[in-house]
Amino acid sequence: MKEVKLCIVGFGNIGRGLAAVLDEKQDLLRRRHGLKLTVVAVAEKDGSLVNERGVDLSRALKTQFSSCPEYSSMKTLDVIKSCNADMVVELTPGNMKNGEPGLSHILRSLECGMHVVTSNKAPLALKYREIMDCARKAGREVRFEATVGGAIPLINLYRGTLQANEVRNIYGILNGTTNFILSKMAEECVDFRIALKEAQELGLAESDYSYDVDGIDSAVKVVILANALMGRSVSLKDVRVVGIRDITYETVELARKHNSVIKLVGDVNELEVSPRIIPQNHPLNISGALNAVMLDTDVAGDITITGVGAGPRETSSSVLSDIIDLAIKV
Amino acid sequence: MKEVKLCIVGFGNIGRGLAAVLDEKQDLLRRRHGLKLTVVAVAEKDGSLVNERGVDLSRALKTQFSSCPEYSSMKTLDVIKSCNADMVVELTPGNMKNGEPGLSHILRSLECGMHVVTSNKAPLALKYREIMDCARKAGREVRFEATVGGAIPLINLYRGTLQANEVRNIYGILNGTTNFILSKMAEECVDFRIALKEAQELGLAESDYSYDVDGIDSAVKVVILANALMGRSVSLKDVRVVGIRDITYETVELARKHNSVIKLVGDVNELEVSPRIIPQNHPLNISGALNAVMLDTDVAGDITITGVGAGPRETSSSVLSDIIDLAIKV
User: Fold this and answer.
1) Mutate which of A159, A294, A299 to disrupt the B interface (most B C-beta within 10 Å)?
2) Is A214 strand, coil or helix?
3) CB neighbour list of residue A186: distance below 8 Å, 6 or more residues apart
4) Contact, A304 vs A284, CB < 8 A?
5) C-alpha separations of B113 from A64, B7, B85, B163 in Å
6) pLDDT tens, B144-186?
7) Where are the alpha helices (DSSP H) in chain B?
8) What CA–CA distances, in Å, run from A26 to A325, A329, B221?
């Protein structure tokens, strides 16, 4: 049995989702991978839980940090420095202004000699080269499967199982909220506003829905894929972005008459996010809040992978997959 | 640079496809994986090419074996024994009567201490436990990504990138010929016979089309997935099989009126291959000769992967992926 120590940074929806899955999966990790993952610290902006023999995750999920015996008022960067973990799991919310505080968490973790797993898109979209340079100098790895496509193992599919291929392009539906809205408009013959309202009622769209419907979220993922998988060096301003706000029901209906649907597609080669007309029987025509990504490869042909693009539990599948990969190497 | 020696057994469509891709990918293998794959023997039932410094694959693709200076009349089992390869790539046609000659090739290779990569479904469907026992005793591995789903990296997706998940079921479209026929019937409003004829004209269906349209090919894949991934110990007779021969155009049209399509679905948990009604916007509703497989997982939710299910070049992507994985371990 190999013990690997984790420090979880960020204990919102994603962090709590991971804690629950880690708790649930202890047996599987032991049995299938010979691993014991011990969370030695959970750091939040209001305080932290620190215990080198393992934070009690089920209690952390049920009670306030401040009422736990493991509570510490230490700041996150100090927790990272002092926690003696093998790996930091950075799960704070994204901030597309400057990538903070996630960016500092990631860089500090690498400087302290720890691997990093993150679900935080902003630091990667804004500072990919800087982060990777830092990782190289530290001789450590940064893994980020959860930043694109939620539960879909896209990055590891690309790197691991299609390793004989040159991937010529990556494109697809990278945002579940807009896919839900467009599917709703097509299937229930309703206008954008009504579909958006339903997405909000179901918790799929924020009250500030611009980030999703104007295509920014998809564009951020295009930037990450371009830099991480396609060897580009681009930033958000290099991506042409058109959202779905101006798509009327009439347009959707016109597409339907031509046996087609309208989907918001991110295209890595073209550095473009825009509504595209897709034939009804195309692998990218998937309904609801799912994501679907096509890899255009030189030997395998087109490979499409579809799955849940968000959600704390589903995202944990990708985060934990990265953790296991790195834990085996530690 | 690490040199790994291969012996290719079988030089029909799949073997020739692999030889062409190996020739094309030498640079990528060197650059990306630090590997030099040297084919020290190519064995066919009519004779072999043997050269410990590397068979000239581009010449082998262009001329008769018997006119090559590397020609040997040695029998395949003797070539396997004497070729001194690290790995045998078994690509002979399947034979569901007794798995031969592929079964003997695989067992002999393992007994001689070599890893095996195969695209041959029959030995795995008929003698999975025997093959795996032999591999365990020999301390060697048998990899078979190409046996299910052609270019789709299904088995490695399951084993590698969803490793935090329990996969509760695997089901989907496992045969491209029947998918082509059913898609044609739905899209062009034609009857089974006409769609079958077109599949034959395009080379998608054999003159003896029973193996595909009666669901046997899908059932063989269900058996492989059940034994290899779901821990079962089943054989072909355990699978209930209903093919698509009796599906009329009227049935397809009735499904369409209910916004649905009919697909031949293999279901690993149910050990069943049968035509099923699928909603039009379901991820398994893919058109043409593609395959699509859903993994029902406990953390990631449903993950669907779609791609080309056959073809010598596309299948080589899976074969070469297995070869690279094993070559790194040799």
Assistant:
1) A299
2) coil
3) A252, A255, A256, A261, A262
4) yes
5) 58, 13, 9, 28
6) 999 999 999 999 889 888 989 999 999 999 999 999 999 999 9
7) 13-24, 26-33, 57-62, 76-82, 102-111, 121-138, 154-156, 176-188, 192-201, 210-213, 216-229, 249-257, 312-329
8) 16, 19, 32
The answer to whether residue B324 neighbours chain A at the CB level (below 8 Å) is yes
Angle (CA) B239 B241 B247, round 5°: 165
* B303 token code pair: 């993950």
Bridge partners (DSSP) of residue B303 are B295
CB burial of residue A113 (10 Å; 0-12, 13-18, 19+): exposed
> Which of B161, B183, B262 to probe by mutation at the A interface, max A CB count within 10 Å?
B161
Nearest residue of A to residue B29, measured between CA atoms? A164
How many contacts does A have with B, using Cβ atoms within 8 A? 147
Interface of B with A in 256-275 (CB under 8 A): none
DSSP one-letter string for B32-55: HH-EEEEEEEEEETTEEEE-TT--
Query: Is this prediction's pTM over 0.90?
Result: yes
Catalytic residue, candidates A62, A221, A263, A329:
A221
Give the sheet arrangement for strand A142-143, strand by strand: A71-72, A47-50, A35-44, A2-9, A87-90, A115-118, A142-143
CA dihedral A56, A62, A63, A68 (to 10 degrees): -10
B178 contact A CB<8A: no
Q: Judge: B300–A314 Cβ closer than 8 Å, yes or no.
A: yes
The structure tokens listed for B91 are 């690509």
Task: Examine the residue annotation and report whether A221 is marked as an active-site residue of this protein.
Answer: yes
Region of residue A84 (phi > 0: left; psi between -120 and 50: alpha; otherwise: beta):
left
Q: Which of B75, B68, B34 is nearest to B54 (CA)?
A: B68
Write the ipTM: 0.93
Q: Name the residue facing B299 among A282, A300, A317 (closest C-beta).
A: A317
Q: What are phi and psi of A197, to 5 degrees?
A: -60, -45
Note whether B300 contacts A21, CB cutoff 8 Å. Answer: no
- pLDDT, one tens digit per residue, over B200-219 is 999 888 888 999 999 999 99
Residues 6+ apart with CB under 8 A from B95: B101, B102, B122
CA distance linking residue B245 with residue B209, whole number of Å: 10
Q: Domains (ranges, CATH) in chain A?
A: 2-151+312-329 (3.40.50.720), 158-308 (3.30.360.10)
Taking CA–CA distances from B17, the nearest residue in chain A reads A299
A175: tokens are 């945002």
Q: Which DSSP helix (H) or strand (E) runs through A47?
A: strand A47-50
First-to-last C-alpha distance (Å) of chain B: 13
